From TrEMBL:
Record-given protein name: KDP operon transcriptional regulatory protein KdpE
Record keyword Phosphoprotein present: yes
Gene: kdpE
Source taxon at top rank: Bacteria
Organism: Octadecabacter ascidiaceicola
GO biological process, one term: phosphorelay signal transduction system
Post-translational modification 4-aspartylphosphate, affected residues: 72
UniProt keyword Secreted, yes or no: no
Keywords: Phosphoprotein
């Protein structure tokens, strides 16, 4: 036995830690959202592995087989929908596959691709997180006895938010590549929704609409860049 983590994973699930024994692979490009998932898994007893792209997710999956995979639909190198389809329609199906997105259309896309469930972003409730996974597990993987629903909400470290904002700022410095800008638009819109930043979310929605209609976006990109820099200045450095 190599670690306390290995010891914990050998224990059966309990009412307080109902996800003990499970390994969760979280495929998520946002550091802030990924940190939220880490805290949710930690408080629930699950071991977590993380990948920030389809490429890194496939590398993880080539080495080990998680019990649960939670997949963000918008990733830097493609759509999480494709990974959901691969993991649910292949010969060796992952036990539980759940999609997640801040896009209101995301649930329909994830379920159509074969996902067992869907978690709309932001995900912060421990009880909700546990229930969304447990409802798709067989009876022998459930904790014994009554389980009190945990209504506690987790709050990720602000450093993770700063990482997301700084990554977005780099892309915004040279937003001439349309593919990168489309990805940045959905990424930053998701970050804004996760932290309830309604003004930034509104500007990202405007940018998305301008891209769809084919309008010139330079002035809107500059506006968003200034807002991102303002938020970086207001978040705590490491």
């Amino acid at each position: 036995m190599d670690s306390l983590d290995d010891f914990m994973q050998m224990r059966p699930p309990t009412a307080a830690r109902p996800l003990l024994g499970l390994t969760v692979l979280v495929v998520e490009d946002s550091r802030f959202a990924s940190e939220a998932m880490r805290l949710l898994c930690l408080r629930s007893g699950a071991r977590i592995r993380r990948a920030d792209s389809l490429f890194h997710a496939q590398r993880h999956l080539a080495v080990y087989r998680p019990s649960v995979v939670i997949i963000d639909l918008g990733l830097p190198d493609g759509s999480g929908v494709d990974l959901i389809r691969d993991l649910t329609q292949g010969p060796s199906r992952i036990e539980v596959v759940i999609g997640t997105s801040g896009d209101p259309d995301g649930e329909a896309l994830a379920i159509k691709a074969g996902a067992d469930g869907f978690m709309p972003k932001p995900v912060s409730s421990i009880g909700y997180f546990q229930s969304k996974i447990l409802e798709h597990l067989p009876a022998d993987r459930q904790p014994k006895g009554l389980r009190t629903l945990n209504d506690e909400v987790i709050i990720p470290d602000e450093v993770a938010l700063r990482d997301d904002l700084e990554a977005a700022a780099v892309v915004l410095e040279d937003a001439t590549d349309q593919r990168s800008l489309r990805y940045l638009t959905q990424f930053l819109g998701g970050v804004a929704r996760s932290v309830a930043d309604t003004s930034l979310e509104r500007e990202m929605d405007t940018l998305a609409e301008m891209q769809t209609s084919g309008e010139a976006v330079q002035s809107q990109v500059a506006r968003v860049a200034a807002m991102v820099q303002d938020r970086i200045a207001r978040t705590s450095p490491i």
